[in-house]
Amino acid sequence: MKKIEAIIKPFKLDDVKEALNEIGIQGMTISEVKGYGRQKGHKEIYRGAEYVVDFIPKVKIEIIVEAARADEVVKKIQDAANTGKIGDGKIFVFPVEQAIRVRTGETGKDAI
Amino acid sequence: MAAPAPAFNVLDEMLNTGFLVKFIPEFKGIINRIQYDRYHLYPVDRHSLRTVQILKTLGAAEGDSKDPLGADLFKEFKIRRLLFWTALFHDIGKGQPGESHSKSGAKIVGTALAKRGFKEKDVETVSFLVEEHLFLFKTATRRDLYDEQTAITCARRIKDVNRLRMLYLLTVADAMATGPMAWNGWTATLLRDLFFKILSILEKGELATREAVETVESKKEDILESVSEPKARQKLETLFNFMSPRYLLYMPAELILEHVQLYNDLGTGDFVWKVIPTPGSNTRTVTVCAKDRPGLFSKIAGTFTLNNLNILDAQIFTWRNNIALDIFEVTPPPDQLFESERWDRAQKHLHDALSGRLDLSAALSEKMAAYRSSGRGTRHRPHRIAVDNQSSSFFTIVEVFTYDFPGLLYIITDALFRCRLDIWVAKIATKVDQVVDVFYVRDFDGQKIDSPEQVAAVKAAIMEVLP
User: Fold this and answer.
1) For residue B316, which of B9, B68, B168, B222 sits 20 to 30 Å off, Cα-Cα?
2) How many CB atoms lie within 10 A of CB A80?
3) For residue A11, what is the nearest residue in chain B, using CA coordinates?
4) Could you tell me if B200 and B259 lie in one domain?
């Protein structure tokens, strides 16, 4: 099994969810995260007061899939989240040692 | 209700004793209406009261649950009555079955306030705010804030700065009164970012005025009407979504149609262009439709110079599907007898320049050297370069004021390209021998160049290439 972690632009969340639903992936964990990177934050001045934003809001999606499906899922996410501009995000793939369903105790691929 | 904090408890007591419903019958539909999700911590009636309370305390910005921008904005309002009534009524539509609660709420509040003798303008404002109370939040979390079109669409809907400020305050208070999933540092950042971008368009743009909206809408209608075939019409409508806001505003309808034709001819090629005699003048108008890429403009300018075509005026537009639409007014080729051959040759040069087969700098260096040695270029004339990062939230605006000479546009745009800048919009104008070139740029990463070092570097790079 693999864990796929994708950091994407917030407004792309719906597109990515839809794309994943299309290939039968329904379950995922979503968090609102703060990003720091090449896409700089910036400051605004309003009525003499400075408003500094030093992070960029991003969304993190975490999905666990069977290893055989990992490449397909990564491609789907990338295509859906891509705008071609800086800040589109990154996708990481991790190995998963074990998965357990809390309600039934099922393990392995029956748990995901 | 507009009295200081203790009065809030009066509202609370009014709610608890049932007096509020007697006083404001419209409240009946939302009494104890539970919102069955993890997002809303309170039933609708309590939430509405909390929104009012939070709004009142927004001005005292302490602690990190407060919003400093909200505090500043709130303090600007001397008369806060409308804000409080809006906050109290913003979810009143949740008691109604059927259509969106924003729309139904707007109707209810409109009637309620008119009944109570509020001025028509105020009733309109509150109805608008209730109807749109989710708009900012939805846009901030669901739309690309780095795309100018997003802010322009919002600016056109909100229409004035006062309504923007009120809407922001309502949005913040509403989110704070909903629960921590709605209001936190993450959502606050998005909302603030959107607020500033819309404010900038409203305060400085000609892109969001009522006239601008009407002009663009009627233009689109006229164009669609002139196309009878339904498939073609559909393609046109899709294309409208890609055309940049400035393009749609400034380009006459007949020309838009011509450009669409040009775009259809582009297909998978690098570029296509159309050369016609400029109406009312002996110059030529060249319209180029190309796949956009950094350096495109400089390559076109260089190609013209290579073929002894002097650029008098230019307008550069970039569509959102990465298509460049560039219109040049150039002097006619020196020998007009074989004009079409000249243009064919120029076209080949541009294809070669774009594919890398032709090194424009090298090809032009001889020409430019010859020009300089003819003496005209060596006389010192004043130049001015201005880099403006205030007027637009989306682009850095570079303005070059100088005197014309053949190849000027090429060397400036080439300098910009070497600074890793991408030109999105440009307006070139020549009056006799004076030139004003305005470039709206972003760096290759799509960002403005606003650090002092970057600005200095751009100015230096352009100064260096000017004689």
Assistant:
1) B222
2) 19
3) B142
4) no
Token pair listed for A31: 């968090």
Q: Which two tokens stand for residue B15?
A: 């709610």
The enclosing H or E element of B315 equals: strand B311-318
| Contact residues on chain A for B190, CB-CB shorter than 8 A | 10, 57
**A32 reaches B (C-beta below 8 A):** yes
Mark yes or no for CB contact B143/A11 under 8 Å. Answer: yes
Of residues B345 and B365, more confidence is placed in B345
Instruction: Give the single-character DSSP code of B370.
Output: H
- CATH number of the domain that residue B271 is part of: 3.30.70.260
- B417: which residues sit within 8 A by CB, 6+ positions away? B294, B295, B298
For residue A10, give how far its alpha carbon lies from the nearest alpha carbon of chain B (Å).
6
> pLDDT of A89-101, one tens digit each?
999 999 999 999 9
Q: How many domains does chain B have?
A: 2
How close B249 gets to chain A, by Cα (Å)? 25
Considering the domain architecture, whether residues B13 and B124 belong to the same structural domain is answered as yes
Token representation of residue B253: 């309808």
pTM to 2 decimals? 0.75
Closest residue of A to B322, CA-based? A84
Token duo for residue B125: 């404002």
Residue of chain A nearest B146, judged by CA positions: A85
A2-111 is a CATH 3.30.70.120 domain: yes
Supply the range of the domain harboring residue B18.
6-204
Name every chain A residue with its beta carbon within 8 A of the beta carbon of B143. 11
Which tens digit of pLDDT belongs to each residue from B97-125? 777 888 888 888 888 888 888 889 999 99
